[in-house]
Please model this.
Amino acid sequence: MVSIARHPPRVNGGAAETPQFLPRLSAAELDAATFETEYLIDRTLVAGQPMIIAGSKKTLKTSILIDMGISLSVGGFFLGKLRVSRACRVGILSGESGMSTIQETARRIAHTAGYSLGDLDNLVFSDSLPRFDNAAHVEALKRFILDDALEVVFLDPAYFCMRGTDAGNLFVQGEQLRNANQVCTDTGCTMILAHHTAKRRGAHLDVFDPPELEDVAWSGFQEWARQWALFGRREKYEPGTGEHKLWMNVGGSAGHSALWALDIAEGLPPDRFWDVTVKHADEAREDALERREAAKEERAQKRAEAKMEGNKRRIVEAMVAFPEGESKSGIRAAAGLHSTQFAPAFADLIRAKNVVTCEVHKSNWRAPITGYKLANG
Model:
């Protein structure tokens, strides 16, 4: 290695600064070296690279994070769909939801995966979060990881770990996130930060479009994350249903990328559950289009039915004036309906036996004609 301290060490406050060194690899050494990319979750999570989980408000980030943690700890399937390559030691540090909510959520998700939460030996939790700008906190996080030999650690939410001032300053944010990177380097642990996306602004932006990396709030996180899983709503949430339709946009510098549609049903207290369906984006868009078309047809059908009922009502009201009966043309004229409106409504009244045939006698006609009157008239 080659020292980058070309001049005698400067003295700062009586203590000489330690010379710094940078590692060196020749092109030949780089070419000969073996660097492996291990996917802990198929097409979603690479080992050893920092990850950001981000989404808009109330997009189940913590619940999905717990699903990921449980699936990693048992070597199962993330969201019941994406295969985990092997079981890992996992830590979840969550300081926002409270341990009661974490417990209830973890129990539901573990039960769905076929496990009891208490039997998951590879999984540990904490309701405390470190501050990246505090050396003692960073050291405590290292000890937490090393004491439990954690391979993956989740920190939820990221803003609890950061100094709030100058959140828009890339250099200030970068300094704190660099400390997080150092934890990963020193422990070999994959760090996953839970964060949120900014509110979309601009007429050209649809709040129900898939989230992008550029939507992640505050400076530094987009640059820090080597991989990401971003969540947003595909459709507006209907209160009282416990059903969520979400986008999940995953990608990373290793080259993986995918856009998934999540249908998550979790019910309502006290009988909540965890049921997840994962579909490809194209399939979800096709389903949404079919549902919109079906809804459009249903609305058109309801409008036609309402119009038919209105026409029938006008006919009945007109026929009240003819208790002894009237010709069809006379009834239509009295109802004030065009023939295309009158004919189907009148035929429906006859089929329902609300209108019956009768003989109609006109004073200036020698013979009676076939007419119609109300059945209850």
